[in-house]
Amino acid sequence: MARYTGPAHKSCRREGQSCGKINCPVERKPYPPGQHGQSQNRRRKQSDYAIQLREKQRVKRRYGMLEKQFRKLFDHANKISGVTGENLLVELESRLDNIVYRMGFAQTRRQSRQLVNHRHFEVNGHLVNIPSYRVKTGDEIAVRAKSKELEAVEVSLATSRTRRQLPEWLVLDEKNRIGRMVRSPIRTDVDASINEQLIVELYSK
Questions:
Q1: Exposed e or buried b for every residue in 68-106, given b needs 16+ CB within 10 A?
Q2: Domain that holds residue 132
């Protein structure tokens, strides 16, 4: 599976968005990387295209996807009925690696992709090791029996109790390490700071 292997924190600072790790430098250095990162006077005003591109890159990075895979997902969202931008966000939120992260089994989406790749999860009783697997309403996601005591999962669940709430469209039996997608996510369930229309405009050119 293709994945980004460059410096994660440099991308965090470029997009102004924390990766979720405790040592992420965004809080300490809330400006772009480079020797001129703090000098706003030396930075040109961004064009419409640059704004659209940065938003696409920010969302793509948040969900841990490369360009080819992200564009393919956008094309699929554009073909199905409904608003393209909202369809795209629903598709992104319905990925298995994202749901593993949302349920608190992993501290970051990058870690959740690794756990899925390493065959620690089942969907409806069947082993799934594809992070991009699309979870549907009613599907049950469970930690495999031999992985229920996995330290990474234990630590993440303990941390998630204080760091974030479980989305309304998911339910979790923490004791048995089983979760379920009770309904499809909608636009209001996704981070309001994402401007999906900019991505639609970028790809529509």
A1: ebbeebbeebeeeeeebbbbbbbbbbbbbbbbbbbbbbb
A2: 95-184
